[in-house]
Specification:
Length: about 325
C-alpha cells in the first residue's frame, strides 16, 4: 500500500475518472490493528468478490473501503459507480446492462419494494460469470440484525452479507487519529490556499480524548472550523470546537427515571449532549448527528414531551 489518500468525509466525486487514470497504488491511512486487519481482508478477497456488504456508522469510511476494494480487484480499470440505493433501483437498475463496479449507498433505507428489486438484481448477478460486475452495498445498520428485527428480507440479507466488512468507528481506532488529522489538515489548507498549520500536543491530546460520534466527517468538520482560529501556524486545544469529555454529563444520566428511558427520551438526551459538546451550535451538532437542522429542531420540540408536561430545554443557535 503506497501513497494517495481518500476519505469518506470528502463529498462524492464529481466526474470521477476511470480507475485507469487514477493511481493503482491507493493507500488508506491508518495504523490501528482493527483497520489494518480490515485492509488485509479486503486485499485477500478483492480478486474474487462479486457481491459484498460494508457496514458501519455514518462517516466512518465505508465508501473509502469500497474504493480500496475497487482498486484491488479485476475491475480496477473501470469507473467507480457510486449511487444512492433507492434512486438507482428505480432509475438505473437494468440487469441487461449491469456491468462494472457499483457502490450502492444506504441499502438499510430501502423499503420492501426496493428490497425486492435489489434481490432480483442480485439473483441475476450471481448467475453471471465473475469478473464482469461487482456490487457493493453500504449500510449504517448491521444487515443481519435488521433481518432479526423484521426490517430486511432474510434472503436479501444472506446474499449481501456472504462477504461482509464491518468498518470500526473512529473511537475504536485511536491510533489513526493523529495521521488522519494531519492528512485532513493538509487537504483543508490546500483547498483554502492557507499556509500549512500544525496541531500542538495539547490539541492532539484533546482530539484523542474526544468520542467522535460523527467519525471522520466530524473530525474533518472540527479541523476546518479550527483553521479559522489558528494563529502563528498552530492549532491549540482551545481552538478546537470540542470538549475533552468522553461520556455524557452526569446530570443528563442521573435525570433518567429508575425504570429507564423511553426511546424518545434517549434520543433527546443524546441530542442535548451533542449540543452541549458543540456549545449550543445547532448547525455543527446536526452535522455530527447526521441529521438536518430541521430534524434537530423537531427532536428538541418533540410533541410527546410537551404532552407529558416536559418541554425539552432549548439551546441557543
Amino acid at each position: 500500500m503506497q501513497s494517495a489518500t481518500q476519505f469518506e468525509s470528502q463529498p462524492a466525486y464529481s466526474g470521477l475518472p476511470a480507475a485507469a487514470e487514477a493511481p493503482r497504488n491507493l493507500e488508506i491511512i491508518g495504523a490501528s490493528p482493527a483497520w489494518r486487519k480490515l485492509l488485509m481482508q479486503v486485499e485477500m478477497v478483492a480478486p474474487y468478490a462479486q457481491i459484498a456488504a460494508i457496514e458501519g456508522e455514518h462517516g466512518c469510511g465505508k465508501e473509502t473501503l469500497a474504493r480500496y476494494l475497487h482498486t484491488r480487484g479485476p475491475l480496477a480499470r473501470s469507473a467507480f459507480q457510486r449511487h444512492d440505493a433507492r434512486q438507482w433501483l428505480v432509475t438505473e437498475a437494468d440487469p441487461a446492462t449491469l456491468s462494472g463496479f457499483i457502490y450502492l449507498d444506504r441499502v438499510d433505507l430501502l423499503a420492501a419494494p426496493g428490497q425486492g428489486l435489489l434481490l432480483a438484481v442480485l439473483k441475476l448477478l450471481q448467475d453471471r460469470p465473475a469478473g464482469r460486475t461487482v456490487l457493493v452495498a453500504s449500510s449504517q445498520m448491521p444487515l443481519r440484525q435488521m433481518t432479526s428485527q423484521g426490517l430486511l428480507m432474510p434472503d436479501l440479507a444472506f446474499r449481501l452479507t456472504a462477504l461482509r466488512f464491518a468498518v470500526p468507528p473512529l473511537r475504536h481506532r485511536k491510533e489513526d487519529i493523529a495521521p488522519l488529522a494531519g492528512a485532513l489538515l493538509e487537504r483543508i489548507c490546500t483547498r483554502y490556499q492557507h499556509r500549512p498549520v500544525t496541531l500542538t500536543q495539547g490539541a492532539l491530546t484533546r482530539l484523542l480524548q474526544h468520542g467522535w460520534p460523527g467519525n471522520l466527517r466530524e473530525l474533518a468538520s472540527v479541523l476546518e472550523a479550527s483553521l479559522l482560529e489558528a494563529a502563528d501556524g498552530l492549532i491549540r486545544a482551545e481552538d478546537l470546537p470540542i470538549t475533552p469529555e468522553l461520556a455524557p454529563r452526569a446530570e443528563l444520566v442521573s435525570a433518567a427515571p429508575a425504570h429507564g428511558l423511553l426511546l424518545d427520551e434517549v434520543i433527546l438526551h443524546h441530542v442535548q449532549y451533542v449540543l452541549e459538546v458543540n456549545r449550543g451550535n445547532k448547525v455543527r451538532a446536526a452535522r455530527q448527528l447526521g441529521i438536518s437542522r430541521s430534524t434537530l429542531y423537531r427532536i428538541l420540540g418533540n410533541e410527546c414531551f410537551s404532552a407529558q408536561g416536559r418541554t425539552p430545554e432549548r439551546l441557543s443557535a
